[in-house]
Write a structure and sequence with these properties.
The chain has 166 residues and is α+β, with helices and mostly antiparallel strands. The protein has a single domain, classed as Beta-Lactamase, CATH 3.30.450.40. Helix content is 34%, strand content 25%. It has a six-stranded antiparallel β-sheet with strand order 3-2-1-6-5-4, with helices on both faces. Helix 1 runs antiparallel to helix 2 and helix 1 runs parallel beside helix 4. It is globular, with a radius of gyration of 15 Å. The structure holds methionine sulfoxide. Methionine sulfoxide (SME) binds next to helix 3 and strand 6. Pfam families: GAF_2. One of its GO terms (molecular function) is L-methionine-(R)-S-oxide reductase activity. This is GAF domain-containing protein. Belongs to the free Met sulfoxide reductase family.
Length: 166
């Protein structure tokens, strides 16, 4: 499996497209939410460079509860509206934070984290989870990265059965 960095023959958009095809193949044949969320977290950590945390928080009532992830241990519950994850849950909008230290209310699980992207996982209009990525580099995520990572989440949603999870 190549990474965003090693797949340098084309543009960053093309790298994300190629990786998204690999992701679809990886998740094909399995629809379990926990299983696919675990594989997805590891796939992102393995293929997207300069990350120190990749994982899910599941929506449970009015708070987020830690789900499958790769990285250092993290806080277990985040109320909607708190931190970057809570803002993504409340607004249902992707949050891309250039410098987490400049974000009022950022929850620091790993002191090494410097930038962050959180993408809401919305199925049939309902928030199921948020997918969170941290980087030790300020400004790690460009708008191209955001679009590529959102396409990964769309593939995850397409591949997964959420019906039992709420
Ligand atoms: N930084 C997040 C908390 C989760 S950890 O990064 C894994 C936030 O501010 O919501």
């Amino acid at each position: 499996m190549f990474t965003i960095e090693t797949h340098s023959t084309g543009s960053l958009e093309e790298s994300y497209q190629a990786l998204n095809a690999q992701l679809a193949a990886l998740l094909s044949g399995e629809r379990d939410f926990i299983c696919n969320a675990s594989q997805f977290s590891a796939f992102v950590m393995q293929t997207v460079t300069d990350l120190n945390w990749s994982g899910f928080y599941f929506a449970r009532g009015e708070e987020l509860v830690l789900g499958p992830y790769v990285g250092k241990v993290a806080c277990t519950r985040i109320p909607f509206g708190r931190g970057v994850c809570g803002k993504a849950a409340l607004t249902l909008q992707t949050q891309r934070i250039e410098d987490v230290h400049a974000f009022d209310g950022h929850i620091a699980c790993d002191a090494a984290s410097a930038s962050e992207v959180v993408i809401p996982v919305v199925v049939g209009g309902q928030l199921m989870a948020v997918f969170d990525m941290d980087s030790p580099k300020v400004g790690r995520f460009s708008d191209v990265d955001q679009a590529g990572l959102e396409s990964f989440v769309a593939t995850f949603i397409e591949a997964t059965d959420f019906s039992w999870s709420i």
